[in-house]
Design goal:
5-stranded antiparallel sheet; 8-stranded mixed sheet; Flavocytochrome C3, Chain A, domain 1; 19% strand; FAD/NAD(P)-binding domain; 3 domains; alpha+beta; globular; Methane Monooxygenase Hydroxylase, Chain G, domain 1
Length: 667
């Protein structure tokens, strides 16, 4: 890294540095990209992160957090093309990207194995798997509840061992571009925020890797960790194309400690109870909707590996009926919902009483093979997954003594920024969105494919950078001139925010209220139950709130990072809601992990009295991808494109070898 002359903006003297490749974020994808870049000979690197211990990769998981890869230990042969088809069949995913994620999955997986991630293998060295959501070939594997945390910790060890420089506690506040090329970022070093220049620092870079995670700060009901907000709005602001922003994944999660309650949490068949707001008047509410106890317990059991909400699994007492019933308890009846592992479901005289010998054949077989067909839900959970029980204990929640409060929460964005098969932005050169911020996923992604995609995408970005963008091409003097206007625009906004006010508590409350408004709006208008009139009004209100950002003022500079995050989050939520509205208004159907209400649609017949009329899922939507872009004139454009098929051609070795020698594969 090389220090250059300072940039004197209209307000601040900002130091400027040149770095070959700037890596933004410190999750599993970003750390892997930095590690691979160094491996490939690019060692002029800097990782910028708002917090090494923040982020989704380090702070989330599930009962056994899944990593999805090509299967190497099943009797039915697997292949890259079969795995690509599983990804592609999920809908609205480009076939060449699906093939890339499948083909490179083992290369990415074994890199993690080689640095020490303890994925379980049998005595012959094969990494056995299990079926996960939308999976047909037992491709799921896991290192336990903290798979991604273990990945992050070991990748960070590699980064530290290679002495790759890290700027911790540093927020990116502006992505810098000239024309259609990204040239670096303006950052705020929170350790130096009390300096005259507020800790602002400019990094020019040949390449910018953007691994900022999913939109964790957009939804009120969210399973993203509290420290993770995401920063896709920074890329949307400069016109980066995005795809499938309408496609988010929602599922049941605990809210005191944010965590997915999937897998064994459901397969042990806990009681679902609701109470009033004071925790009184307990009711086992599922009993009101199922005709018999076997159907009820089977739906709960299936929720374990049909965890994401899916509108196709609501009718006829499917597993996603549970999500709808939880919604009705919380949002219509204003009650609280809990999982209770202390007692077995009771049932009643109408639907029958719960007995372990009256389980569905699938549930009985699973619990029997797991040696867990006994006792109470907490006993079964302790037998099947003691790490999951201990995880909650480490957060002061004892499942043997108290129920676990839950809601249906935003969990993952299947859409995101648009990239090619090398994870380079489709309309901004030298800019590589990797990890969850990249929108490579389609509508129905297999569980665990996000971890695979992050590792494959970061590997591919490192390969492209090291092979084709290794040379220094920025003309520094021209670049500095080209970014001054953009930097001045932001520093002027900062100056307007930093106005005198005597009431610091009121300022903090105002910033929090500002964020609460768009988070509540996103959960209401862009959640898993969507209504066209509410979404339409949400877009109007979102645009209005975005335009009002400059009215926010503070005099405590320590609140500045929070305020600047509000700036890119409020933009992102407007673009997301606009994409959702466009999808609904152009005839989009219920699909993925959301249901679109429509008085002219189909009514759910079983169970009776649910009063849900919605647009049924139809796969005709699957062959198109929604592209969204925030324009320089402050408008949001949307269009549909046809997805690319899985490549169907012969890969002749001599020809591929020549393409490699000439580096034609990168074009």
């Amino acid at each position: 890294m090389k220090q250059l002359d300072s940039i004197l903006s209209s307000q601040f003297d900002i130091p400027i540095f040149y770095i070959h490749t700037l890596v933004i974020g410190s999750g599993a994808a970003s750390l892997n990209c930095a590690d691979r870049l160094h491996q490939f000979g690019v060692d002029d690197l800097l990782i910028v992160t708002e917090g090494l211990k923040s982020g989704t990769s380090r702070n989330t998981g599930s009962d056994k957090q899944t990593y999805y890869k090509l299967s190497d230990m099943i009797k039915i042969p697997d292949s890259s093309f079969l795995m690509a088809k599983s990804l592609f069949d999920g809908g609205s995913m480009h076939g060449d990207i699906a093939l890339t994620e499948a083909t490179c999955s083992l290369q990415a997986f074994y890199h993690l194995v080689n640095i020490g991630v303890k994925f379980p293998h049998n005595e012959y060295g094969s990494f056995v798997g299990y079926k996960t959501d939308h999976d047909t070939m037992q491709r799921g594997t896991s290192a336990g509840p903290y798979t991604s945390r273990e990945m992050v910790e070991l990748l960070l060890s590699e980064v530290m061992r290679k002495k790759i420089e890290i700027s911790d506690n540093t927020d990116v506040v502006k992505i810098l571009k000239i024309g259609s090329r990204v040239v670096g970022a303006l950052c705020l070093d929170k350790r130096k925020i009390e300096n005259d220049n507020l800790g602002l620092i400019c990094y020019l870079a040949e390449n910018t890797v953007f691994g900022v995670g999913g939109p964790g700060g957009l939804y009120k009901e969210s399973v993203y960790p509290h420290g993770h907000t995401g920063a896709i709005g920074l890329a949307l602001e400069i016109g980066a194309e995005a795809v499938n922003l309408s496609e988010s994944q929602f599922g049941l999660a605990s809210i005191k400690h944010r965590w997915n309650v999937s897998g064994a949490f459901q397969q042990v068949i806990p009681r679902y109870i609701s109470t009033d707001q004071d925790g009184r008047h307990e009711e086992e509410f599922l009993c009101n909707w199922f005709p018999d106890i076997e159907l009820l317990t089977n739906a709960v059991f299936l929720k374990g590996y049909q965890w994401p909400f899916d509108p196709r699994k609501v009718e006829n007492y499917g597993s996603s009926l549970i999500d709808i019933l939880v919604y009705k308890e919380i949002h219509e009846k204003r009650r609280r919902v809990f999982l209770d592992f202390r007692r077995n479901p009771e049932g009643n005289l109408v639907i029958g009483k719960f007995k372990l010998d009256k389980l569905s054949p699938e549930a009985e077989k699973y619990l029997t093979k797991s040696n867990a067909l006994f006792g109470l839900p907490i006993d079964r959970l302790t037998k099947m997954n003691p790490d999951a029980v201990n995880m909650y204990k480490s957060h002061s929640i004892d499942l043997s003594k108290e129920p676990l409060e839950i809601a249906v929460c935003s969990q993952h964005n299947n859409g995101g920024l648009s990239g090619d098969i090398w994870w380079e932005s489709t309309n901004l050169k030298h800019f590589f969105p990797i990890g969850e911020v990249n929108g490579s996923h389609g509508v129905y992604r297999p569980g665990g494919s996000a971890l695979n995609s992050g590792q494959v995408g970061s590997l591919r970005a490192a390969q492209k950078i090291s092979e084709t963008y290794r040379e220094s091409t920025l003309i520094i003097e021209d670049t500095i001139k080209g970014i001054k206007s953009s930097i001045n625009d932001l520093t002027e906004i900062i100056s307007k925010i930093l106005k005198h006010s005597d009431d610091e508590d009121a300022q903090c409350s105002s910033l929090r209220n500002y964020r609460d408004k768009f988070q509540i709006r996103m959960s209401l208008a862009g959640g898993y139950i969507r209504k066209d009139d509410i979404t339409h009004q949400g877009v109007i209100d979102a645009k209005k709130q975005f335009k009002s950002f400059n009215e926010c003022t503070i005099n405590n500079i320590n609140l500045l990072p929070f305020a600047l995050k509000n700036r890119h989050l409020v933009l992102a939520h407007w673009v997301y809601l606009s994409a959702i509205e466009y999808y609904i208004s152009s005839g989009g159907r219920s699909r993925g992990s959301y249901m679109i209400m429509d008085v002219e649609g189909n009514e759910i017949i079983n169970p009776e009295g649910l009063n849900i009329i919605y647009r049924e899922t139809k796969n005709k939507d699957f062959n198109r991808i929604l592209v969204s872009c925030f324009t320089e004139n402050g408008e949001i454009n949307h269009k549909y494109i046809k997805r690319r098929p899985i490549p169907d051609k012969e890969f002749w070795f001599e020809f591929v070898w020549e393409q490699n020698r000439n580096k034609d594969i990168f074009n």
